[in-house]
Amino acid sequence: MERFKKIIRLFFEFFKIGLFTFGGGYAMIAVMERELVEKKNFLTHEEFLDIIAIAESSPGPLAINSATFIGYKTCKFFGSLFATLGVVLPSFIIIFAISLFFERFIALEYVGYAFRGIQASVAFLILSAGIKMLKHLKHTVFNAIMVSLTVAVMVLLEFIAPDFSTVFLILIGGVIGLIVYLVGYFKTKSTKEKGDKD
Fold first, then answer.
1. CA 6 to CA 169: how far, in whole Å?
2. What angle do CA 180, 167, 38 make, to 5 degrees?
3. 52: closest CA among 76, 33, 77?
4. Counting beta carbons within 10 angstroms of the beta carbon of residue 186, is it exposed (0 to 12), middle (13 to 18) or buried (19 or more)?
5. Rounded to whole angstroms, how far apart are CA atoms 31 and 10?
6. What angle do CA 66, 71, 77 make, to 5 degrees?
7. CA distance 117 to 120
8. With left for phi above 0 and alpha for psi between -120 and 50, is residue 60 left, alpha or beta?
9. CA 152 from chain center: how many Å?
10. Contacts of 188 (CB under 8 A, 6+ apart)
């Protein structure tokens, strides 16, 4: 019974996140962290950062991937099913309703003004999510170098404006992280083996 209640709570939390967050997955990160980590304690900050990293590097939209991972982590299969349904349903219902009278809806002057305001809010939400994630990132030399390099490369690419997908930045970051881990692992292993021989 307790598990069922948790699944229903997950569904409603993600339904609320899907309903009131504009601007896609990145804009949802700050809201998800506040609702699921700080208020409901479904996850720790570290677990949340890991899930966002996995969701971002997996194919598909960030919001849906995050909901699926968080749901599974919390309540296994049914948790992932209901969390994913919760985050998808509001968009589906709203887009379906708008599609019935899209031409008239988009032509409304007030709708145009509303979208301009929403764009500014989305930019703030994405920036806020980035700053929050940066605060909770472990303060290691590797993380500092990776964040600095990523920012520098993104700014440089913005000025040069080549046709370079950000997916490659994620993949390059993953490969570098894996190499650093393997170097550390083999270094520790060889030190341990030396110690055992002595």
1. 37
2. 75
3. 33
4. exposed
5. 14
6. 125
7. 5
8. left
9. 21
10. none
* CA dist., res. 169 & res. 174, Å (int): 9
Structure tokens of 115? 């979208």
Contact 157/164 with Cβ under 8 angstroms? yes
Show me where the domains of the chain are located.
1-137, 138-198
Cα separation, 78 vs 71, whole angstroms = 8
Stated pTM of the model: 0.53
Q: What is the pLDDT tens value at each position of the chain, 198 positions in all?
A: 777 888 888 888 888 888 776 666 666 777 777 777 888 777 787 888 877 777 776 766 777 888 888 888 888 888 889 888 988 888 888 878 777 776 676 677 777 777 777 777 777 777 777 777 777 777 888 778 887 887 787 777 777 766 767 677 777 777 888 888 888 878 887 777 776 666
CA distance 101 to 105: 6
Q: Which residue bears the tokens 């509001």?
A: 90
